[in-house]
Prior knowledge:
- By secondary structure, the chain is an alpha+beta fold.
- Among the domains are: about 1-110, Immunoglobulin-like, CATH 2.60.40; about 500-575, Immunoglobulin-like (Sandwich), CATH 2.60.40.1180.
- The strands form five sheets. Strands 16-15-14-13-12-19-18-17 form an eight-stranded parallel beta sheet. A six-stranded antiparallel beta sheet has the order 2-3-4-10-9-6, with no helix packed on it. Strands 20-21-22-27-24-25 form a six-stranded antiparallel beta sheet.
- β9 and β10 (about 95-100) form a beta hairpin.
- The longest helix has 20 residues, at about 330-350.
- The model has no long low-confidence stretch (mean pLDDT about 95).
Amino acid sequence: xxxxxxxxxxxxxxxxxxxxxxxxxxxxxxxxxxxxxxxxxxxxxxxxxxxxxxxxxxxxxxxxxxxxxxxxxxxxxxxxxxxxxxxxxxxxxxxxxxxxxxxxxxxxxxxxxxxxxxxxxxxxxxxxxxxxxxxxxxxxxxxxxxxxxxxxxxxxxxxxxxxxxxxxxxxxxxxxxxxxxxxxxxxxxxxxxxxxxxxxxxxxxxxxxxxxxxxxxxxxxxxxxxxxxxxxxxxxxxxxxxxxxxxxxxxxxxxxxxxxxxxxxxxxxxxxxxxxxxxxxxxxxxxxxxxxxxxxxxxxxxxxxxxxxxxxxxxxxxxxxxxxxxxxxxxxxxxxxxxxxxxxxxxxxxxxxxxxxxxxxxxxxxxxxxxxxxxxxxxxxxxxxxxxxxxxxxxxxxxxxxxxxxxxxxxxxxxxxxxxxxxxxxxxxxxxxxxxxxxxxxxxxxxxxxxxxxxxxxxxxxxxxxxxxxxxxxxxxxxxxxxxxxxxxxxxxxxxxxxxxxxxxxxxxxxxxxxxxxxxxxxxxxxxxxxxxxxxxxxxxxxxxxxxxxxxxxxxxxxxxxxxxxxxxxxxxxxxxxxxxxxxxxxxxxxx
Length: 592
């Protein structure tokens, strides 16, 4: 690893020669594949592509947009580069050269070695990876339609009734939708000047959440952890909303003490129209007073036993003229803000809690965990999010998952749900989630009619397919049986700065068939996973790299270094190596 100052105009490193003039850096080298660049939904190998590194919020069908970019790549030829800037950069991956546009005074860091070595050195620039608690390796369940304590109690009943394991419950529709830290329907006396409220200050009688502390304890007694949804705004309420006095006081305090991002004239920066939460102010997490005030208001949630937060949003800086407390501007904030936001929440919950984030930037391995954002329940979205997970992993992100079968639009087909569940079973985080009944953006796109929940039991009931519930229970219990392996792998990945989901090129960069393989991955050291991405797919080709491989399910031995065509028989192909043995075999092995 070598840091190269922006003042240097020409230098050679490894097999590359670099020329720099102002904002333009030309890297000349021979390579067949370039990987990384953050969480990229369009492709894994970026050769032949133009990549813009800018945090963007894009609802479904992300294409070349991303919530979590990183100006970092590595090649099959042993060269890697990181542009050490938070400003927007552009990378054009040509045939024998790479053109990079970056701020004139940005240093670059170059690497030479194997993909494993380059990723490890890149991660070291930002600090060690964070290890989430073991319970994150379990199954996460979420639905935006759950908006009362009765819904949570009903969920517990369904999990027991249908015999489904779960470790984490995520609640999105829990708050007043104004302050985002007060339980919906709670009565209290609003407090001025940024003062925090305590749990004892609330009267929950008549609230959809009549006793949230007892609810949390009940979840814990049943082996479940609870995360609450968050978004970093001082919200501007719409004319159709009931005025929230506490939110008005919080906004006034933020303006008076400049706890929010500002403009050059000192007035608050507000999110422009046409974006999520238009007109809202944005907390400035570079200001220690903002951090103290923001989390002081949320401390009572930790005190009552909340285990973490789903830190949504953060793609909120749209003006280069925005100003932050530390002197930086919107030029840096467009990318850095999501990282600052999630890092502050990480610090707040500590090592026993966890956050679940959508947006981020380079070095995001220091903030677990992440999910792949918003997708509709369509097959092409499943293929897209798989590429996102692999490119995120190639960029050093370790703990990643996705909303299996998508969370938006009409319900997925049973076959899409089946294949997405199987893929999620072999991911670090397995989660199902769904938007509100009728859809989140009814004016833009249709949603599921009636109960839109993506739970296995609702899918079974809506399609009148009772046997489907038995099938889904198998994959959920298999993921639970994999937890010892997942936890062991998680600790090794953090210790050794390795990705969890590894594209084949990570381990076999000299194998030409691994270079463009975008639909297979290693899960840790011992499992090779080949998801099914087409509707009613009955067979698929799987490339097995050099070595000896065994079918995970029937133990058939295969010689590597070749492509095999397999009959899928209702399940995705998974292979093992290194003498892998599933010690916890509590799942129903006789399903197939």
